[in-house]
Design brief:
This is transketolase. This protein is of the alpha/beta class and 739 residues long. Helices cover 38% and strands 11% of the residues. The protein has a six-stranded parallel sheet, sandwiched between helices. The protein is elongated, with a radius of gyration of 28 Å.
């Protein structure tokens, strides 16, 4: 048996030498330490632990696939039967639910069968094995395709009863793929284009790790990312953003299948989508192949995949022309099969048309037997990697330790000590600059820490000074240059975060431009992807750029979003404290709203207290009964503190509270909340340079909120604060009116 220090979390890295259907038996290696989390990934791992470069550049980019079979293929009769099994599992599940999208699974069954049965490397009994090939169904509405594949391949997460409970309460087969519900599903898809963007992030992660850790005598990182995208994905702007980057980065292990069926919800795509997709992807730097017969051209599909894998210097788009709803006599090739059950009569007609005599949800015995081999083969693939990693760890112990941290999510001991600390005597600075100090400190201490900005690194202050850029020729770099592609940036970071638990990606832009990436940020929260969003220029305090760049409603909007932490730190200690939480909360994304203007290092703030979300910065009262409580965030905490001093000069007892993160405060005990905001004290004033919406929850019905409830203006920051009433005088006056 290999060394017990050798890791096997649920992710292992497999040798390129093993063929897609081949296997070798090796002794297993004890598992890596698992994440302390209640996510499906962590739950699965805990239960398992307890149980114990040729460029191909001379060919034309767009061409039909040459008919050339891959290594070992199944006889066509059994393939037909297997493909129809996939189709009818989807048909039956949608029919039983009276809801869903049968058309895509019926059309994409051939390509997906070949992928899952003949090409992809995975272990069904360990969905989180590190060196598995990743599959992303970007056209997530067709999720019964993926559930059928997982069921046939032997994943315990999708049993027959799960197929029968498709789209029902508590089901492991929800209406769109959800990584947090169904082991075997890599990312959460549904909003079109998000999936291919996640796939770019997954492929980026593989290329980065391979560059950092592979050795001439041991290619320990080696896997592919596959995705199926539809016409709807192609129409979404995010797809162009991320595919442009994929081409620029030369992600040769990204292979996307374009389900070219010419149908969308409103009808034939000719009504709104007539561009030449092939030429567009050529221009984006992709290799393009066309499979003309996606309905039963199995050898064409195999040949296309083989060609795609031979092209190592660029991603590949395989356009597969299919018939949506293939096999349905009256609904195939029409929008009516896209998003509704076929209906009892049409299901029967389809069974007759395809010669399918089996009962609903029945998998023929020969198909079941054929697919059952993936369980022992997958275990052998993972065991092979475990042995390979043991040799790697022995020969390259330092690199192995870093890779183990990324694979397992276990942070290096004492990593948090790298974060800078500040005193009131430390020089004042903009929190965006203080953030840069934290980012660079974390990059030295945390192996999986990487990220970048949407063409604003010099303004967001997000450059990692000790690292180079991630580029095609230098993929080991940890600075990601996203260009002006905010939406794509966020979604790519989701893919990176979901590749391995120890990846901690951050991305940055001006806070107001979260409007461009909100869909990706919402998916971060939903899919439990712990991306860190570094958002600078957080208020009217940015000054002269004016209302187009001044966020107003943004803080409130993210406070309203489930499972996301909205931080607005006031100084260096609070900024470091926010990063400490963001790094440790791997299942929750974080947003840091940071100032452009210089702020002082305040007395009373601390890294540790940020964990409370809201805490007392200063207080001259006794018995938890101040005359008034002043509450501030970010740059306005200084104003609250100054107002508190003015009121104390007049003999008032004043508590000043920093409310750096509402979500963390909500997690505290009732006793702690009462110690900060005693229910008997109704005289409360909040001040924040953003909308007052939501502050009633904090100040209560008798309190007052000072903020900005209109768009901003173009002027120096000081002038804006005065004109909008974000001043010490305003806080003092409000407090006196309440006392």
């Amino acid at each position: 048996m290999a060394s017990t220090s050798s890791l096997a979390l649920s992710q292992g890295l497999l040798s390129r030498a093993i063929s897609p259907n081949g296997s070798e038996n090796h002794a297993s290696v004890p598992p890596f330490s698992v994440l302390k989390s209640t996510s499906p990934r962590a739950t699965f791992l805990h239960s398992q632990r307890r149980a114990s470069t040729s460029s191909h550049s001379l060919r034309p980019l767009v061409r039909a696939a040459a008919v050339e079979v891959t290594d070992a293929t199944t006889d066509s009769t059994l393939v037909d039967k297997s493909v129809n099994t996939i189709r009818f599992l989807a048909i039956d599940a949608v029919e039983k639910a009276k809801s869903g999208h049968p058309g895509l699974p019926m059309g994409c069954a051939p390509m997906s069968h070949i992928l899952y049965d003949e090409v992809m490397r995975y272990n069904p009994k360990n969905p989180y094995w590190f060196n598995r090939d990743r599959f992303v169904l970007s056209a997530g509405h067709g999720c019964m395709l993926q559930y059928a594949l997982l069921h046939l391949a032997g994943y315990d997460s999708v049993r027959e009863e799960d197929l029968k409970s498709f789209r029902q309460w508590g089901s492991k087969t929800p209406g769109h793929p959800e990584n947090f519900e169904t082991p075997g599903v890599e990312v959460t898809t549904g909003p079109l284009g998000q999936g291919i963007a996640n796939a770019v992030g997954l492929a980026l992660a593989e290329k980065h790790l391979a560059a950092r850790f592979n050795k001439p005598d041991n290619e320990i990182v080696d896997h592919y990312t596959y995705s199926i995208i539809g016409d709807g994905c192609q129409m979404e702007g995010i797809t162009n953003e991320v595919c442009s980057l994929a081409g620029h980065w030369g992600l040769g292990k990204l292979i996307a299948f374009y389900d070219d069926n010419h149908i969308s919800i409103d009808g034939d795509t000719e009504i709104a989508f007539t561009e030449n997709v092939d030429k567009r992807f050529e221009a984006l730097g992709w290799h393009v192949i066309w499979v003309k017969n996606g309905n039963n051209g199995y050898d064409e599909i195999r040949a296309a995949i083989k060609e795609a894998k031979a092209v190592t210097d660029k991603p590949t788009l395989i356009k597969v022309t299919t018939t949506i709803g293939y096999g349905s006599p009256n609904k195939a090739n029409s929008y009516s099969v896209h998003g509704a059950a076929l209906g009892e009569k049409e299901v029967e007609a389809t069974r007759n048309n395809l010669g399918w005599p089996y009962e609903p949800f029945q998998v023929p015995e020969d198909v079941k037997s054929h697919w059952s081999r993936h369980t022992p083969e997958g275990a052998a693939l993972e065991a092979d990697w475990n042995a390979k990693f043991a040799a790697y760890e022995k020969q390259y112990p330092e690199e192995a330790e870093e890779l183990k941290s990324i694979i397992s999510g276990d942070l290096p001991a004492g990593w948090e000590k790298a974060l800078p600390t500040y005193t009131p005597e430390s020089p004042g600075d903009a929190t965006r600059n203080l953030s840069q100090q934290c980012l660079n400190a974390l990059a030295k201490a945390v192996p999986g820490f990487l990220g970048g900005s949407a063409d604003l690194a010099s303004s967001n202050m997000t450059l990692l000074k000790a690292s180079g850029d991630f580029q095609n020729a230098t993929p080991e770099g940890r600075n990601l240059r996203f260009g002006v592609r905010e939406h794509g940036m966020g979604a790519i970071c989701n893919g990176i975060a979901l590749h391995s638990p120890g990846f901690i990606p951050y991305c940055a832009t001006f806070f107001v431009f979260t409007d461009y990436m909100r869909a990706a940020m919402r998916i971060s929260a939903l899919s439990e992807a712990g991306v860190i969003y570094v958002m600078t220029h957080d208020s009217i305090g940015l000054g002269e750029d004016g209302p187009t760049h001044q966020p107003i409603e943004h803080l409130s909007s993210f406070r309203a979003m489930p499972n996301i932490m909205m931080f607005r730190p006031a100084d260096g200690n609070e900024t470091a404290g926010a990063y400490k939480i963001a790094v440790t909360r791997r299942n929750t994304p974080s947003v840091l709203a940071l100032s452009r203007q210089k702020l002082p290092q305040l007395p009373g703030t601390s890294i540790e207290n940020v964990e409370r979300g809201g805490y007392t910065v200063s207080d001259n009262s006794n018995g938890n009964k101040p005359d008034v409580i002043l509450i501030g965030t970010g740059s306005e905490l200084e104003i609250a503190a100054q107002a508190g001093e003015e009121l104390r000069k007049e003999g008032k007892t004043v508590r000043v509270v920093s409310f750096v993160c509402w979500e963390l405060f909500d997690e505290q005990t009732d006793e702690y909340k009462e110690s900060v905001l005693p229910s008997d004290v109704s005289a409360r004033v909040s001040i924040e340079a953003g909308t007052t919406f939501g502050w009633g929850k904090i100040v209560g019905g008798k309190g007052k909120s000072i903020g900005v409830d209109s768009f901003g203006a173009s002027a120096p920051a000081g002038k804006l604060y005065k004109e909008f009433g974000i001043t010490v005088e305003a806080v003092v006056a409000a407090a006196k009116s309440l006392i």
